[in-house]
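New to this. Explain these tokens.
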Amino acid sequence: MRKNTFMTLTMGMALAAFTMTSCGEKKAEQTEQGEGAQTEQTTKKVAEKPADLKVYKSTDIQAQMANDAKNVGFDKSVLSTLDNMMEGNKSVEALYFDHKMNMIGTASFKNCTNLKEVHFDEVVDVIGDEAFAGCTSLKEFSASTSTYGLDAFKGCTSLTTVKMDDTGWKIREGALAECTSLKTVIIPMTIDAIEENVFNGSKAIEELTIPYNYKDRMYTFCSDAKGIKKIFVLTPALYQFPTTVAAKAFNKSQCTAYVPDALINDFKNDATWNGFADIKPLSESGYFNANCTIK
């Protein structure tokens, strides 16, 4: 078994300090000139908690804790869940975390096959190894988290959408492997490490982020997926379309490339990007702002 070792991660994010027009260029301050003046805003969506929510305190949780509730929450005394804490539980259908969490422990919710929803209202630093592996009813996952652990969501066969935000830093091996329904992968420009085999067996991907640090290798990571229809190119400047074997085999003709708004003409005029079904501005993607930040 691979060893699970995590450290709480602290990141100073340049993207949080200022807004940019193309990734890396400071945006001029907007002035209010009539009703047309607007600024990009991100509204944190807070989950509405059900009336039958069962809330656990740190004094309540133990390894292999017993639980018979469908809706489970944790109060502010719980900063990390325990390894294997609810592994194999068949009752839980929804989890609610309304405060900052340091970590979701190894296999905390592994094989909770009726788990359909996980709600994080605040940051969770680390999603541990196999934390949600085998949660075959989980359909979407969105969180402010820096690290997805080894096999974190492996075998989540109903999972369609995974969305990180601009705190994202690392995705470990197998984290999104064998997610056979996975269609949309939204990850930030801030991603610094993506390990091998992260998407193995996830063949249904249709919408994929291409962060600048992995502009060549993302096509290799997703070589199992033959039906990619949209890519979201996060970059501070134009670069030539990669020439790796996987990139050459990539089917441009069925795919639209969304690129930073300020660079759209550069991409359209670059011969290496010819062949895409279309090239559009990121602001029209539905997921990203014009400056490569996630909506």
About this structure: Residues 93 and 202 are 24 Å apart (CA to CA).
